[in-house]
Amino acid sequence: MVMKLTCYLCVANLVVLGIIGGVYALSGVNLLQILSFGITVLPRVYLAICGVSALFCVYSLIAFKPFKGLK
């Protein structure tokens, strides 16, 4: 139960990061800077959490092999 919730949170975190990155790439508006109210530490903390989320997603793909039955 906890592992499943963690997987959902990590994937949701990476989806939000992808949306923020897409907005920045297409319009030049840095949503991380706007949402952090100019505090420079908060975007770095969020990006570090996203890095850990990405590593956890890779780990869960290796450990649990969700695509093993697909051919």
Tell me what portion of residues adopts beta-strand conformation.
Answer: under 5%
What characterizes the major β-sheet? none
Low-confidence stretches: none
| Distance N to C terminus | 27 Å
Looking at the structure, what is the overall shape?
Answer: elongated
Query: How many DSSP H or I helices?
Result: 3
Provide an overview of this structure:
With 71 residues, this protein is mainly α. 77% of the residues lie in helices and 0% in strands. The chain has three helices and no strands. α1 crosses α3. The protein is elongated, with a radius of gyration of 15 Å. It starts with a helix and ends in a 7-residue tail after the last helix.
In a nutshell, what does this entry contain?
With 71 residues, the chain is mostly helical.
Secondary structure blueprint with pairings:
Elements: H1 2-27, H2 31-35, H3 41-64
Helix pairs in contact: 1-3
